[in-house]
Amino acid sequence: MKRLALGLIIITSLLAACSNGTDVTTSQGEKATGVTDTSIKIGAWLPLTGGVAAHGILQQTGMNAYFEMINDNGGVNGKKIEWIVEDNAFDPQKTVAAARKLVERDKVFAVVGSNGTAQSAATFPYLLDQAKVPFLPGQGGANDWWNPVKPNLFGVQVVYENQAQALGHWAAKEGAKNIVVVHSDPAAFINVAKAVEPGVNTISKEASVNLLPVKFGTSDYAPIGLEIANKKPDAVVAILAVEELIAFSKALNRQNLDLPIYTYAPNVSNDTLELGGKAIEGLRAMSYTVPPTIDTPEVEEYREALKKYEPSAHPDFQSLYMWGVAKVFVEAINQVDGPLTRESFVQSLKSMENFENGIIPPVNFSEGDHMGVKELQPVMVENGEWNTVGDFIDPDKEW
Questions:
Q1: Helix axes 53-72, 297-309, angle to 10 degrees
Q2: 235: which residues sit within 8 A by CB, 6+ positions away?
Q3: Which of these CATH numbers, 3.40.50.2300, 3.50.50.60, 3.40.50.720, 3.40.50.1820, describes 29-158+294-368?
Q4: Measured distance CA(291)–CA(360) in Å, rounded
Q5: How does pLDDT run along the chain (399 residues), one tens digit per residue?
Q6: What residue segments make up the domains of the chain, in order of their start?
Q7: Phi and psi for 339 in degrees, rounded to 5?
Q8: What is the bridge-based pairing of β-strands 284-287 and 377-382?
Q9: Which has the closest alpha carbon to 250: 217, 233, 267, 272?
Q10: The domain at 161-287+378-388 falls in which architecture?
Q11: Which pTM value belongs to this model?
């Protein structure tokens, strides 16, 4: 009888602990970090200050609106999502500090959403190798992230090198023979800029491609505009942050240079339209998502949630993309078979096949391929608006 009473006391204590929101323990005795009977705690880092804060703030609104909507509808399998966002100011050292804070102090289950290639990569030795925390990035990525496969890293953003390859292909396809690639000088930007030429070569072996590096954070692009005028290109590919893309486009405009400009997905946003004005008319770009203005049930749901949970924000490609990332995370949680642990979550991601979400292309992961999306949507600024140019394309295939 004493043993029975003691057993009941232990069971009652465990139930009370769970009801108070403490970490859930699986039947195998494994501690499910960041998961309780009522919540799932996840983290992210975004540049909410600094030179690319416009991107970070937009991305935060999209993912936050999705999680708020999910929580208002009862959460994921009865668990509310607690999303903790740290400002990394687009700085690698601050990003590492943010990762340690999220893992060691906040005890997050996973990192979902981020911004920055070099910034996020700086966390890998700690986050992936040491702490072994699942990471589903937002914006950022490079080819060496995915080959060889990193066990806890999964992504849905087409890498920047493939985007640059698609831009080079597009410029050559439209007849460009002398292409200048204007890019910021950090290594991550240089690697992307170098990928333009292979894309050009898929169309023309005779076309020339020249790289023009610019110090990251440059605000006065007048000398660059003059240098472009002297080079006499017939197309320009810009691998620059959005504020610098705008300054560059206006510098070309002042030189009366009517050149087609091609840029990558981070610059597809309303900010580009509003800040660039007439200077970016005709701008070509690659987008991660369908336009945030189309009338489909999935995009309408996004617009309604944004209106409710982020009333000061306007529909935008950047926030829509992060909404799509959040949908992938929730789908993986929904598909977990058995107790929710980091291991079961990773297994769920690896088995995700053809997940249609209506925002980004269908997502497919496997044991040997953790890059879940391969396609991009070409878009172009026409009459002050982003319009699609054809359907989604795969940069590695003929289009």
A1: 100
A2: 171, 174, 176, 178, 179, 180, 259, 260, 261, 262
A3: 3.40.50.2300
A4: 10
A5: 444 444 444 444 444 444 344 455 544 445 689 999 999 999 999 999 998 898 899 999 999 999 999 999 999 999 999 999 999 999 999 999 999 999 999 999 999 999 999 999 999 999 999 999 999 999 999 999 999 999 999 999 999 999 999 999 999 999 999 999 999 999 989 999 999 999 999 999 999 999 999 999 999 999 999 999 999 999 999 999 999 999 999 999 999 999 999 999 999 999 899 999 999 999 999 999 999 999 999 999 999 999 999 999 999 999 999 999 999 999 999 999 899 999 999 999 999 999 999 999 999 999 999 999 999 999 999 999 999 999 999 999 989
A6: 29-158+294-368, 161-287+378-388
A7: -60, 145
A8: antiparallel
A9: 272
A10: 3-Layer(aba) Sandwich (3.40)
A11: 0.89
What the block records as the tokens of 40 is 């799932």
Cβ–Cβ < 8 Å for 306, 117: no
Task: Note whether 29-158+294-368 and 161-287+378-388 share their fold.
Answer: yes
Nearest residue to 370 via CA among 338, 343, 348, 395: 348
Contact partners, residue 211, CB within 8 Å, separation at least 6: 180, 181, 183, 190, 193, 194
Strands (DSSP E) along the chain, which ranges? 23-25, 31-36, 39-46, 80-87, 110-114, 135-136, 178-184, 208-214, 235-239, 261-263, 284-287, 377-382, 385-388
Number of residues assigned to the chain: 399
Q: What distance separates the 2 farthest-apart alpha carbons in the chain?
A: 94
The H or E element spanning position 246 is: helix 242-254
Helix or strand or coil: residue 207?
Answer: coil
Tokens matching residue 142: 């490079």
Region for 29 from its dihedrals, namely left if φ exceeds 0, alpha if ψ lies in -120 to 50, beta otherwise: left
